[in-house]
Design brief:
109 residues, mainly alpha, 4 helices
């Protein structure tokens, strides 16, 4: 009888440790999405606004090529806001995907 009681008492702390470990390993996929969305969107916004402020005869021809992939985007003040929205959504999806895949792998391990 004593052996079975000690086995149960040893199993409970191990189970709690496993639960705590799994909880700590879990990422917030939404927070990752927002963080990467803000990072990507802010980066494009800042790069576009620097080129607009700097000005010149040819304003950011390479950055302007993003208009091929992001309809409505151009190297202008309005384009900076449009690009921010596009890259926020793209960054959110990438961050959410990273968090979700990580959580799925952490749960299975």
């Amino acid at each position: 009888m004593i052996d079975s009681e000690t086995d149960r008492s040893d199993a409970e702390p191990r189970q709690r440790d496993d639960d705590v470990t799994k909880t700590l390993l879990k990422l917030n996929a939404r927070a990752w999405g927002v963080a990467l969305g803000l990072l990507f969107g802010s980066g494009l916004f800042l790069a576009t606004m620097i080129l607009v402020i700097r000005g010149g005869s040819s304003i950011g021809p390479h950055l302007g090529l993003l208009g091929v992939f992001l309809p409505g985007y151009g190297v202008s003040t309005g384009g900076a806001f449009i690009g921010f929205v596009y890259l926020f959504v793209i960054g959110y999806l990438i961050g959410w995907l990273i968090g979700s895949v990580y959580n799925a792998l952490a749960r299975s391990g």
